[in-house]
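Q: A reviewer asked whether we had any structural model of the full assembly, not just the individual parts. We don't, so I'm hoping you can provide one. Inputs are below.
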Amino acid sequence: MNVTGVVENKSTISEVKRKTKKNLLIKIKKSWQLYVLFILPLMYILVFHYYPMYGASIAFKNFDPVLGIGGSPWVGFEHFKKFFESYDFVRVLKNTLGLSLYSLIAGFPLPILLALSLNYVYSKRFKKAAQLITYAPHFISVVVMVGIIFMILDPRGPINNLLSLFGVKEGINFMGEADYFKSIFVFSGIWQNVGFGCIIYLAALTSVSPELHEAAIVDGASKIRRIWHVDIPGIMQTAVLVLILNMGSFLDTGFEKVLLMQNPLNLSSSQVIDTYVYNVGLVSALPQYSYAAAIGIFKSLVAFILIIASNKLAKKVGQDGLW
Amino acid sequence: MNTKIGESRGDRIFTVCNYIFLSLLVLSVLYPLIYVLSASLSSTNAVASGRVWLFPVEFSLLGYKTIFEYSKIWVGYGNSLFYMIVGTTVNVILTILAAYPLSRRDFYGRGIFMFLFVFTMMFNGGLIPNYLLVQDLGLLNSRWALIIPNALSVFNVIITMSFFKSTIPNELLESAQLDGCNDFKFLFKIVLPLSAPIIAVISLFYAVGHWNSYFGALIYLRDASLFPLQLILRDILVQNSVDPSMMGDATQLANKIGLQQLLKYSLIVVSSLPVLIAYPFVQRFFVKGVMIGSLKG
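A: Here is a predicted structure for the entire assembly that you could use as a starting point for your response.
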């Protein structure tokens, strides 16, 4: 039909494109100062976060410090194979997943419980004191935390003293028994973080509309029923969000604390992927950089799959995911 | 008269149970802290034989005295202060430099940059590549190894960014621009003075992080004169390696063991003191920080 029309159209499109491009340049030019401000942080992120991602490619190479990351020869999946076939693989994976799952299951509900409980305290002073005290351990360093664990659980410490009142004669060396390791790790973590973890739920509870509570009271609902039918649905969204965020760091559960609590006696249940990487890659007399990096990548991959899966799951049960 | 009308019997039982539950929880959180404090104030004998339960037994300040004479601790204290002050300053500056442009709607490429930042929260190169990078940059065994690789936390950038977005109205920017104010000036003269609360919050987050961290020092530092307090604490509390010169005139083995125990308790108190003294005053800031962080999940 009319060829000219198409041509005309084309020319306007390219013109618009040119114009937007020009606009863009003008826009960037107008706010060039923002880019100047942004240079330093951007460089930091690129160098200290993205360069190591490139550096992780040594997992597929035989890293030679002399040749550098780029120059070392490729070996494909050799290091991964070595890890999967190694004697440690099953044990380390089992410990990592076991510890993470245990922490998640035991540690997730308690902050919610604490927030609900604080929410029904009428005495302002008591509430404030309870919050002040339960938040405090969060600010204690991991090193001190582990030091305290050792002292409290010492064969001659207060816990064993208490047990001896109930007829346990021998002081139990809690840190020396592999069977106790996971529970000690998890419950000391709860001790440290339950208070701080509940802040976010307290915030969510304040946004539950009071009319719902009033209506429930008019209908004769008891407090337990109000918690169940009003409060819990009100904080569900937050709980799911926290759960997903936890899933993202699911596998690096307190690596620094595990490392500190680890000793030859409890190694069989305290060796997790991260400490294994640390031992193989940095501590041993012959550091195996490539092998350790391969194990690190394996962990990142599992973590990535977990966060995507939990996000999908959250959407399936009708909640908003992270994205 | 009962002020809470409609409080049924079930509800009263619930309230009582609730208070009992909370009290037990608070006590179990508090007990280890009180125990450590009491033990640090007891005699070596009482500590070694496990006679301390709740209050100090045979009050003594020997543990503290021994610490005060131990120079390693004070070197560590000084180093930790250095890492905390310099590190936090670098952190806060970089965080603001990242967060302010990202909070501006007219910052072209914001989406891409944001993605670049957030992606690093989910994925990282891992321990070994990071170590190699620090090594290649020649930072190994230098003070900067604890500062530069931790110059920024993306989580804090997000908190700061959402604060800027919600408190600095766009009209303010527009009117300032009409008056000929440029972006630098706007940031320093208008945004920063309005942002004292968020700067306080992230400074605290960063400062506590620096004060409490040990792992970076463990892998990057070799020279004992650079060690932060936490690393020295680790040697004594966890590795049980106490310098014999520290024990002074405790010649008998039993005394030595007792003093070694006592030292640990006093050390915990001394090292946590700055944080615990500041804590009641700054607690609400932390709560605020968590709240701001939770606004935009």
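A: Points you may want to mention in the reply: Chain B touches chain A through 92 residues (CB under 8 Å). The radius of gyration of chain B is 25 Å.
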